[in-house]
Amino acid sequence: MKAQHGGFSASVNAMYDKAVALMDLSPGLVEKIRVCNATYTVRFGVRLRGAIHTFTGYRSVHSEHMEPVKGGIRFAMAVDQDEVEALAALMTYKCALVETPFGGSKGGLCIDPRDWEPHEMEQITRRFAYELIKRDLINPAQNVPAPDMGTGEREMAWISDQYQRMNTTDINGRACVTGKPLNAGGIAGRVEATGRGVQYGLREFFRHPDDMAAAGLTGTLEGKRVIVQGLGNVGYHAASFLRAEDGAKITAVIERDGAVHAEGGLDVEALREHIGRTGGVKDFPGGTYEADGTRLLEAECDILIPAALEGVIHEGNADRVKAPLIIEAANGPVTAEADEILRKKGCVIIPDMYANAGGVTVSYFEWVKNLSHIRFGRMQRRAEEARHQLLVDELERLSRNRDTAWTLSDDFKKNYLRGAGELELVRSGLDDTMRAAYGAMRETWHARDDVPDMRTAAFIVAIGRIAASYQAKGL
Ligand SMILES: NC(=O)c1ccc[n+]([C@@H]2O[C@H](COP(=O)([O-])OP(=O)(O)OC[C@H]3O[C@@H](n4cnc5c(N)ncnc54)[C@H](O)[C@@H]3O)[C@@H](O)[C@H]2O)c1
């Protein structure tokens, strides 16, 4: 599905060039920020099922203006150097936009995880991790991966363990990777974080009537028709939250084996369970099946959420896309050519570097938690508890002195004293981040007549911050 002219990197660079043309930066700095610093390619063998199998993997470092560099590891057959370099570049811009103190990186392994048993995947993942760890391409201070397509908590736990076996005296070893399970140094809310960020980003859009007007939308998220491509980690969580908490209707889901649609809305939880059990959307009883799923990208809806692959909306189909609003949950789902076509049609695109930044934001919280060696929010909770206890004591004293009948219930005391747990802190930190980044992006979008869209605005904000970092520190 790489329907991109000149590849994914060329598409990202075309968008970058459009933004820097509106900025006052020296050509040398423009070039330095654009280029990918380094890409390491590894080919390694693993003995499986009685034979040696050779795998090819990559770790690309786009910008080290801040370290560690950060970016997921993708397991998919379509992984290649161009793809990881484009994804690494997007990580640089994304981290700058949401102000996480990281440079950009990305990794990938050419593999279809469905071809292998879990114990074989463990062997392959550990071996890939070993190759990267021994070159400091996984390291808490230098390069910190996370999940991406085809990987999740399971793979992150193996990578973390592999690093710690090879670096037994590194007290910060757990911070070498984020997206780990909770019982292996993860943080509450990381699995859902990218989908949650998509939801928060949409909520923020719907808080701004003039932004909605640009897409010809009115009202709230309630009842809006949403089409989602890819019901994986990001797509599922976004769809599930939007449906359950904002009242949106998921009218179609596009997956590898086709699509299902239902004008009245799909039961996302039942569909997820069906995909898990059968491997696809076919035969799902709650909707109509369509073998040519990609056609649903062009169906009537209010919001289109591509949450699978890059390049799915391209020169060849952009003109037929009817959604007035696209939120890019996936990285690079709209090519540079399609972006132009859609903008001319009046479609508003909430760009990937903002839309899917929830993952890296909560990864940052996890990294900080690992480095601080204390459960996230624990100190703060203790301080809050102490403060709340003072308040409760004082209220009780007052009530006694005035000889009134009211006393605080034990329930109230328990709940009041409990304070915010890790999940609440993570969610509020994510919400705050998404609001601040949206504000910076829209301010640039609206402040200047020559900034045509939100994506260009996002690039301008991100590049401005990276340039400032280079100018402050030198190269
Ligand atoms: N996981 C994260 O935290 C994270 C963070 C930021 C961005 N992203 C981006 O979000 C996208 C999805 O990542 P994910 O982690 O949800 O991956 P995932 O592997 O959990 O899910 C991907 C889903 O897309 C489906 N899919 C694959 N090929 C498809 C096709 N041709 N047509 C329709 N559906 C297809 C898969 O079956 C799967 O359900 C990627 O672009 C990734 O880079 C992920």
TrEMBL record:
UniProtKB keywords: Oxidoreductase
Tell me the Gene3D superfamilies matching this sequence. Answer: Leucine Dehydrogenase, chain A, domain 1, NAD(P)-binding Rossmann-like Domain
Which domain of life does the protein's organism represent? Bacteria
Read off the Pfam families from this record: ELFV_dehydrog, ELFV_dehydrog_N
InterPro entries the UniProt entry points to = Aminoacid_DH-like_N_sf, Glu/Leu/Phe/Val/Trp_DH, Glu/Leu/Phe/Val/Trp_DH_C, Glu/Leu/Phe/Val/Trp_DH_dimer, Glu_DH, NAD(P)-bd_dom_sf, NAD_bind_Glu_DH
Q: Where is the Glutamate/phenylalanine/leucine/valine/L-tryptophan dehydrogenase C-terminal domain?
A: 187-474
Sample GO molecular function, one term: oxidoreductase activity
Q: Which family does it belong to?
A: Belongs to the Glu/Leu/Phe/Val dehydrogenases family.
The protein's matches in PANTHER family, at most eight in alphabetical order, are given as: GLUTAMATE DEHYDROGENASE (PTHR11606), GLUTAMATE DEHYDROGENASE 1, MITOCHONDRIAL (PTHR11606:SF13)
The name under which this protein is listed is Glutamate dehydrogenase
